[in-house]
Design goal:
The protein has a domain of 75 residues: Immunoglobulin-like, CATH 2.60.40.1180. The two termini are 25 Å apart. The chain has 577 residues and is an alpha/beta fold. The protein has an 8-stranded parallel β-sheet. The protein binds 1-deoxynojirimycin. 1-deoxynojirimycin binds next to loops. It comes from Microbacterium alkaliflavum.
Length: 577
Amino acid sequence: MSNPLTDPATTPWWTGAVVYQIYPRSFQDSDGNGIGDLRGVLQRVDHLAELGVDVVWFSPVYRSPQDDNGYDISDYQDVDPLFGTLADLDEVVQALHERGIKVVMDLVVNHTSDEHPWFVESRSSADNPKRDWYWWRPARAGMQAGEPGAEPTNWGSFFSGPTWAFDEATGEYYLHLFSRKQPDLNWENPEVRKAVYDMMRWWLDRGIDGFRMDVINLISKRTGPDGELADGLVSVGPYGDAGPITTNGPRLHEFLQEMHHAVFDGRDGELLLVGETPGATIEEGKLLTDPARDELGMIFTFEHMGLDHGPAGRFDIKPLDLRELKATMSRWQAGLQDAGWNSLYWENHDQPRIVSRFGDDGEFRRESATMLGTVLHLHRGTPYVYQGEELGMTNAHFTSFESYRDIESLRYVAQARTIGHLSDDQLLKGLQDGSRDNARTPVQWDASPQAGFTTGTPWIAVNPNHRSINAEAQRADPESVFHHYRRLIALRHDEAVVRFGDFTLLLPEDPDVYAFTRTLGDERLVVAANFRGESRTVDLGIDLHGAELVLGNYADSAAPESAIVTLRPWEAVVVRA
Ligand code: NOJ
């Protein structure tokens, strides 16, 4: 059976697109207050056009107290003054549209800010008409509300501490899977769903081209029982794991189909709809992205991002086993081969930089960053490039706790310190490897003091390596990471086999080389990439005699001449054979 999304006659535009994610706070500051903003984006649209991306996804710019850098929204229909105005946003959208770039907005509707008027009303009294718009619960049976351990369940929040906050005024608790300033909306209530759909239609009517839906598989959830006390993501504390109970709830597909019909009907295929779905299995992925089911276009899966996590999660990083990465990626490729669609990503604002994670951010930074880009972009799916990834930006390498800004990192450190099971050195190492701030240092535009990001003091430190790693230098260097990403994006636009071809993994057991083919009719591309800092020779089992080089990441890359292929440190080749 072949996937209807790979039929050129009917496939939607986004199966051939490359998306660029902007985290506005760290992209470009225009007014010298040290925080990136929308007028800053206007200064950099030509960078995006030159790179050749088709879509920009904006992390939230809505009104927000900024407890979680905008993922805590107090007004869905306005822009936060930190970032500018609705008129600025209109200008940005217009400037991007003029360059043929579509715009996708972040949609954060699992929770609001506690300062959103809906929550302000909801918490005002137990009989307020909006009380049921959030998850309010009494204390655990037999316990005194407010006393330690009286929370309705034992769950730990994604950001450390309990998921239930006690509200003195009404003597009840509200649920917040993230920070206590991010109360979870109750999607069981039809009024909540209607309010969300109305807001979404308002955005589409303003001319945006889709949504990236934050933790969308948490909208249907169970609110009990207690979670397992285990070493896991929430292990640094006396809390239970809420994940399995609150993720992929029983009404998820019903809600998404209802949303689809209420908001997207009549615009099918025109919109890019990508859901962030931690913990989704391939089976879930198929259900969520099979176009026949009218839910989403694609999802962000997390399996490949967890492969270097130790038992205590993102702050407990271990070396990647390449065989596991290959197995995971190819399972998803195969799983959505006949129905559904993959999104492809190495980075976003929640993940450390890929060159520091799976590559080498020292001697072979350029080689490993271009190799990693090649491997990702040659898979089937829609690739996402996170700001700075196209420059091979590295982790922050902060050497003091004071440099960190992210709520998840700060709360993790505070909680770990109260438990006292890790030394400060261990804690700092955890942040250096795993903190989300690694992705949030300002984009490195040039070699000037604040990397061209701001004339003021940046809200988070600029990486000193901007003197050598920056967009200006890379534009002038044809071998740079930037130009390699530009070529990768062009390749997807030009070659139907990159967009639609079937994926077959080669050498699944090889610990160092990632190799696969993409096939469409008589066309075949062979991709081989070395994940090590020394040369490797492998037998691909495919005669490459007479093969034509499509792309390589060394200035003198050449097509191999037989099945036996030698790859230099972090070398990647794509050949037509
Ligand atoms: C996922 C977002 O990507 C992350 O940045 C945020 O903290 C949580 N969802 C909560 O909205």
